Amino acid sequence: MRPFGRITDIRSAGLDGLILYFGGDDLTQSNQAVQHCVQALQYLNPTWLKELLPAYDSLTIVFDPWLTDDHGVYRCLAELPMNSQTVRFEGHHHRLPVWYGASQCNDFEHLCSYTGLLQSQIVDLHTQARFRVFAVGFAPGFAYLGELPEQLACPRLATPRKRVPKGAVAIADRQTAVYPQASPGGWNLLGLCPVPMFDVGKSPASLLAVGDTVQFEAISEQQYQEWCHER
Amino acid sequence: MSDNSAKQLLLNIADKGLLSMIVDGGRSGLQQQGFCQSGPMDEPAFHWANWLCDNESANPAIEFIGQVIVDLPATIAFAVTGPGAEVWFNGQLQPLWQTLSSLKGGTLRIQPHRIGTRHYLAFSADWALKSAMGSVSTVIREGLGGLAGDGKPLASGTQLKVCPKQCPDRSVPVQIQPEYALTRPLEVILGYQADWFSGATKNLFFSESFQLSSQVDRMGYRLQGTPVRCGRTDLRSEGINQGAIQVPSDGQPIIMMKDRQTLGGYPKIGCVALYDIPRLAQATPGDRVTFTSIDTNNARATWLLARQRRHLYRKGK
């Protein structure tokens, strides 16, 4: 199966799956192409479609092998209409409040010494950037946001923590994220976000989707507590 | 109170064994939000357990490891499926892969022949369960599904409320049952980053045997053997399909199962074919597995024929 358009490579992902890789001038462009393909497929909603797994520059498609095969999927992709009716070219924008330096989520000492920046400079850089959701996965509602300004890029912890609290805002490499649930984690912690990242009572359950944009804003401990009590 | 509630039975899980949990067909269409697939590790055994009970094919059933004991207060049709177990009812040995509909109330004890294998206990009944994200399948890590919808597996002493139904007696003959022997290699469709592995490494992967480590769970089965080295590690996280064979830098493959995380960044040499996943799911630590390569078209044909056999048998042909 020959790649075409923005698709640069197509590989098998089992007898019921294909993975497509997308290209562009940068990661944002590749991810936009992934997002558009996802939306066009969702709009078409072919009977054989079982799962779509968009990620940074790839899209994994799981199909029902009773209804089609990888060539059938390929032919469908080749004819996929991409226009303003089938594709929402802009994602939703979200503003997420963060209590930076919350006591149980505070790696600033390590981050300041690693980056050579003051805590206030780190917060400024983190709140000024407009991040893109490149992928949602690993756990329900966990959104990989990027790209983090180069000055903030820092490696994961050598030993992951056994427990990172729900709502922890974290950075690692060129990425940032909000932990949707308490879980083990190896990212560096900046603070706490009071907005739930997923709600099983809602559809969609995940607040963020690939292609959405996010900007963080600093709030005080008191504002954080008020946010939490409002719910 | 409605008629249904009058007919409700309370089944008591006297002993949950090593791990007992409620599963159904699993969650669908939610992997892009980060929810795992979930559902039965041995899909054919689960499927037939429900068919033997005249249930919808994705009706809830209990997947369990180790010896379980269940008290049944009155007659209820049920069936047990899986690779092999002794089924005792009030001290009488009963068959697997058959509807057991005429037993009066008493104590059911199921002792798998091999520790670590998964068996399915289905009842001909409707369950009063609240689904979480479209399914009652238990996912401990996500806190979803199960009796209370919070992802907890079944505890000893749990009471299960069910509404029994009438059910014809059925059986699944040996030739229709899944085959569990590991003497035949598991069939693998090369894909994903297969090109990142040298020809010599691929030869090694398809000629050596690998032992199941003790790290086997519903997320993945970690193998041990001669390291399968991959030349590159610079992979961005991407979607992981069922049966995908991840190879971390230590060269010890991990095969991704029903509760796998949706995205991951380890190189993958390919995927175990769907129809061979139950065979792997029923292997236990210390067992040895081998792999053979199959192309996508052949693999799909094998899968389609197996599905067709299932449909024909269900139709009585």
From N to C, what is the helix and strand string of chain B?
HEEHEEEEEEEEEEHEEEEEEEHEEH
CATH architecture heading of the largest domain in chain A: Beta Barrel
Q: What can be said about the biggest beta sheet of chain B?
A: 8 strands, mixed
Strand content of chain B: 25-35%
Number of strands of chain B: 21
End-to-end gap of chain A: 51 Å
Largest interface: A-B, 43 and 45 residues
Shape, principal axes of CA atoms of chain B: globular
Name the helicity range of chain A: 10-25%
Description:
Chain A is of the alpha+beta class. Chain A has 2 domains: 72 residues, Gyrase A, domain 2, CATH 3.30.1360; 138 residues, Beta Barrel (Cyclophilin), CATH 2.40.100. Helices cover 24% and strands 30% of the residues of chain A. A 7-stranded mixed β-barrel of chain A has the order 5-12-9-10-7-6-13. Chain A has a 4-stranded antiparallel β-sheet with strand order 1-2-4-3. A two-stranded antiparallel ribbon of chain A has the order 8-11. The longest helix of chain A has 18 residues. The termini of chain A are far apart. The relative contact order of chain A is 0.16. The N terminus of chain B is likely disordered. In chain B, the strands form 4 sheets. An 8-stranded mixed β-sheet of chain B has the order 20-13-14-17-16-19-12-21. In chain B, strands 7-6-8-4-1-11-10 form a 7-stranded antiparallel β-sheet, with no helix packed on it. A 4-stranded antiparallel β-sheet of chain B has the order 2-3-9-5, covered by helices on one side. The longest helix of chain B is centred in the C-terminal third of the chain and has 19 residues. Chain B is globular, with a radius of gyration of 20 Å. Chain B has 5 helices and 21 strands. Chains A and B meet through β3 and β4 of A and β15, β19 and α5 of B.
